[in-house]
Amino acid sequence: MDGGSMSDFEDDIGDVTGVPEWYLDVYRENLWYIHSYYNRLYLQIITNKDANALEYGLLRLPILRRVTITPATHGVPGRPLYPTPTIRSLHGLVYPLERSWPVMGGQWRGYLLVSRILAQHLRNNPGSKVTNLIVDTNQLRTGISCRIFDGPDNNNERSDLITILSQPGFPHLDLSLHCAALYQLDGRSFRSGHLRNLLAMAPDPQHISLYTNIAILEDPNDDEDVERYVIPLRSIFPINDWHQLRHFGLSRFHVKKDDVIEFLGELPMTVMSVELSFLIFLLDYGDYHALLQDMRKMLGWRKRKAADQPKITVRVDEEGEEALDTLRMDVSREVVDFMYHDGENLFVEDEGFTYFVEISQGTGIRVDVFGPDYK
C-alpha cells in the first residue's frame, strides 16, 4: 500500500478556513479524555467530595500553619504558581487559564468552602496551629467580595473570618478584596466598621496586607462627590492595637497624601517593611511625588540605623496596562534610594490624580507577576 510521503500529508490541510480532517482524527481521543475528566471533577463537586477531602486533610495535618486561597493557581502555561498534584497530572496539556473569580454576585465555592471548613475545624480543634491566612490574587484585579463587610452583623462569611483571625498567636493576614462596584455602594463596605472590627480580632498581628481592585473615580462632580469615596485609613486599620506589627501593605486604594503620611507616622517601631503600590490619589490630594517628599521629610525613618529602616516596596501600573495583563513596574529600588540615600524622586510631580503614574525615563524595572523571580 502506498501511503504517500510526509510532505503530501502535511500539504493536505483541507479547507484553509476550517479544521483539517487529520487534526480531528488525531485529537478526537483527547477531547474524549478531557470531557471524561471534567465529568469526574463535576461529580466530586456536586457530591461534596472536595469538601470531605479538605475536612479529612485538616485533621491529619496537626502542624499546618498556613492556608492560601487563590484564583491564580495555574499561573501561566508551563509555569504554575502553585504546582498542585492535580496540575502536575496535567503536564503538557494546553488548556485555558482562568484569571479571576466570578462576578460580585457569584457564589465563590472555592473560597467559601475553604473558609467555612477551616473555621469549623478551628472551633472543633482549639489547639490547631493554623495562624496564617493568605487570600492571594498575585496582583490580578480580583479578590473575595467586599460586600461581606457591608451586610448584617450575622454574616456567616464574616463570622468564619473572625473565627480564623481570632486564633491565639495569629500573625499573618493577606486579604484581597473585589470592589468593582464600590462607587455605586458609596464605600459602605469600608464605612460599616465591619472590616475594622474583623482586623481588631487578630490578637497581635505581625503582617497585615490589604489589596483591592478599586478603579479610578471617573469625572467626580465636586469636592463632596470625591469625599464620599475617601476612606480614612485609621477607620479601617486599628493601628494603635498592633504593637508587634512588622509588615504593613496597602495596594490599589483611594487615598489622600496627608492621610497616608499621618497613618505611616503612627506605625509602631517594630515595622520593618511597608508596601504602598498602585495607590490612587484623589483630586487635589497629592500624588506619589509629594508622598515621597513628605515621607522623607516627616517620618524620621532616615534617622534610624540602617538595620532598622523599613524596607519600602512600590509598584505601579504601566501606561495602557490592561486589567488582565501581568506586567508591572517595580520602582522600589529608586524609592529606597531617595528615602535613605541621595537618590532623586523618580515620580513626576502632578498634583491631582491620574490613572497613569509618570516616572522618570530609565527608572523602574518591568516585572511579570507570574515570572519565576517575582516576589
Instruction: Please write the string of helix (H) and strand (E) elements.
Output: HHHEHHEEHEHHEHEEHEEHEEEHE
Radius of gyration: 24 Å
In helices, the fraction of residues equals 25-40%
Structural class: alpha/beta
Name the poorly predicted regions.
none
Major beta-sheet overview:
8 strands, parallel
Report, as a whole number of angstroms, the end-to-end distance.
59 Å
Question: What is the average of the pLDDT values?
Answer: 83
State the assembly state of the protein chains: single chain
The number of distinct helices, counting runs of at least 4 residues, comes to: 12
Protein name: F-box domain-containing protein
Organism: Fusarium venenatum
Would you kindly provide a written description of the structure presented here, covering whatever features stand out?
This is F-box domain-containing protein. The radius of gyration is 24 Å and the shape is globular. It is α/β, with parallel strands linked by helices and 375 residues long. Helix 9 (223-227) links the parallel strand 5 and strand 6 (247-251). It has one domain (44-368). It is built from 12 helices and 13 strands. It has helices at 6-11, 21-46, 49-59, 85-89, 109-124, 156-165, 188-191, 194-200, 223-227, 257-265, 288-298, 332-340; strands spanning 66-69, 132-135, 144-145, 172-178, 207-212, 247-251, 254-255, 273-277, 280-281, 311-313, 315-316, 327-330, 365-368. Strands 1, 2, 3, 4, 5, 6, 8 and 10 form an 8-stranded parallel β-sheet that branches. It has a 3-stranded antiparallel β-sheet with strand order 11-12-13, with no helix packed on it. Strands 7-9 form a two-stranded parallel ribbon.
